[in-house]
Each structure stands twice: as structure tokens, then as C-alpha cells.
Write a structure and sequence with these properties.
Number of helices: 9
Strand order of the largest sheet: 1-8-3-6-9
Order of helices and strands: EEEEEEEEEHHHHHHHHH
Shape: globular
Number of strands: 9
Distance between the termini: 43 Å
Oligomer: single chain
Helix content: 40-55%
Strand content: 15-25%
Structural class: alpha+beta
Largest sheet: 5 strands, antiparallel
Radius of gyration: 20 Å
Length: 267
């Protein structure tokens, strides 16, 4: 049975934790709690004793059922200096129901990551009301996954409409100044309709979607490619270094220069 297709009541949160890439247990026997884990900047492979293998890439969430047995293999080359897995472990009221492990693809990644980070931060600080805040964030995670799943399943036509634009974006985001009018023309629709359908599917505008792709690529160039801030800006599709720095800090909460410095210290 699929976990989030059912209505579940969380009885208790056991822990919210961040596990850096390469750390944490490798073998898990008779898991004590249900869990949701978000992969940030790393790829993780879960091998269950049932023979099922689930590979989670960065930006994907996995549900791990209570009582499951599995091993964890993490990518030895993290995509960022602060790569790792954010996890929330909890108990539910319907433990008699058996759920299967499941990978959950996420489109609103920034929002999802923010919820996991906030829960982990609250749990670590343990200030007054931390338990309630973690509890609320977990239900918000449930809600986002369910909403995105509903949009995806009911919007196959929307994905088909956007396919030419998405293919063009993925091919050219780092090398061209992509115009909305060109994307709309590729899809055979108007610009306002393109923006409306795009936001319905991805919860962001086409411009923000493109910016996020460029930021993710710039992060790889800074840490793994050995690029300077200037080179990363131009190679990832930003035509202006100052604009790149502003957008990077807006998205990551840290300047590209500081991000690069932190990455060097981690090596």
C-alpha cells in the first residue's frame, strides 16, 4: 500500500536530523520508525531485503516504512560541499497497515527543502514549541507531496503541452538568453497560457525554473569544476556577474564567493 495515498495520523515525531553525505549507518534492521528523507546534493541507493532497490537522486524524497530492513549506499562524490540527507522519523496511529517503501519525486524543491531544513533546525535547537513546529512542518511536507501528485496525475495534457519548451530549456539554459516568446511559440500557445500552465505544473514561473537550473549548475561548477565565481556565472548562463551573485544569494542564502570558500574548506 502507498503511504501518502492513505490518511495517516502522526502520533509522535522521534527525530529530525541531517546526515552529511558519507556519514550515517549503512545497515538498517527492523526500522523503529516511519521516515521521510530528502536527498540534497547527493544520490542514495536503498537496497531492501525484499529485493527492491530504490535509487534517490538529489531533490527526491523517499518514504521508509517502520519495520523495514535495508542497506544504504551513498554517492561518494557529493554534488555540493553541504550535501546530505534530511530525515524526519515518526510514528503513526495505523501501524497495523503495511506500507511499501516509495520514492516521491518533488517539483517544488526549494519549498520542500526549506520545510525539511526548518524541522531539523527546530529539533536541534529545542526551543519552546519546537515539537509543534516539527509536527506542523511534517504535515506541510505531506500536503505538498499530495498536492504535487494530484497535479501531476491530472495534468498529463499540461506536461505534453510543455514538453517542447522543457526540452529546449534543458538543452540551452546555460548557453542562451531564453525568451518566453520563443518557448510559447515552440509549444504553439500564447505567453500568458505558457506561464499559467508552467506554474500549475512546477509551482514556479518559467523564468524561476530556468534560474534554478542555472544556480544548480553554477554550484557544481564552483565546487566540482574548480571555476571562479566569474567563470561559473557565465558558464551557467548568467550574462552578468553582479546579477548572478544577487540571484545566487537570494536562492542559497549565501554569496557564491562564500559558497566557494566553504567548499574549499570542506575538501
Amino acid at each position: 500500500m502507498e503511504f501518502l495515498k492513505e490518511t495517516v495520523a502522526v502520533m509522535r515525531i522521534a527525530m529530525a536530523v541531517f546526515v552529511p553525505c558519507g556519514k550515517g549507518g549503512h545497515i538498517h534492521q527492523d526500522r523503529a520508525y516511519h521516515g521521510l528523507a530528502y536527498n540534497d546534493g547527493c544520490d542514495t541507493t536503498y537496497r531492501f531485503d525484499t529485493g527492491e532497490v530504490i535509487c534517490c537522486r538529489s531533490g527526491e524524497v523517499i518514504y521508509l516504512p517502520k519495520g523495514s530492513n535495508y542497506t544504504v549506499d551513498k554517492n561518494e562524490i557529493p554534488q555540493t560541499c553541504d550535501a546530505g540527507v534530511y530525515a524526519i522519523n515518526f510514528l503513526i496511529s495505523s501501524d497495523s497497515v503495511k506500507f511499501r517503501p516509495q520514492k516521491l519525486s518533488v517539483r517544488g524543491r526549494d519549498k520542500m527543502l526549506s520545510l525539511f531544513k526548518r524541522a531539523v533546525s527546530s529539533w536541534r535547537r529545542k526551543e519552546v514549541g519546537y515539537f509543534e513546529e516539527c509536527f506542523a512542518d511534517l504535515y506541510k511536507i505531506f500536503k505538498q507531496i499530495k498536492q504535487e501528485s494530484a497535479v501531476y496525475s491530472s495534468s498529463a495534457k499540461s506536461f505534453k503541452i510543455l514538453k517542447p519548451a522543457l526540452e529546449y530549456i534543458n538543452e540551452h539554459y546555460a548557453t542562451e538568453n531564453i525568451r518566453m516568446s520563443d518557448l510559447a511559440s515552440l509549444c504553439g500557445i500564447s505567453e500568458p497560457y505558457l506561464r499559467r500552465v508552467f506554474h500549475k505544473v512546477y509551482s514556479v514561473s518559467p523564468a524561476v525554473y530556468i534560474r534554478n537550473l542555472r544556480i544548480d549548475y553554477a554550484k557544481e561548477l564552483l565546487i566540482l569544476g574548480g571555476c571562479s565565481v566569474t567563470d561559473a556565472a557565465f558558464l551557467s548562463g548568467f550574462g552578468d556577474v553582479s546579477y548572478f551573485s544577487r540571484e545566487f544569494k537570494k536562492t542559497m542564502g549565501i554569496s557564491p564567493k562564500d559558497y566557494l570558500s566553504e567548499g574549499k574548506r570542506e575538501k
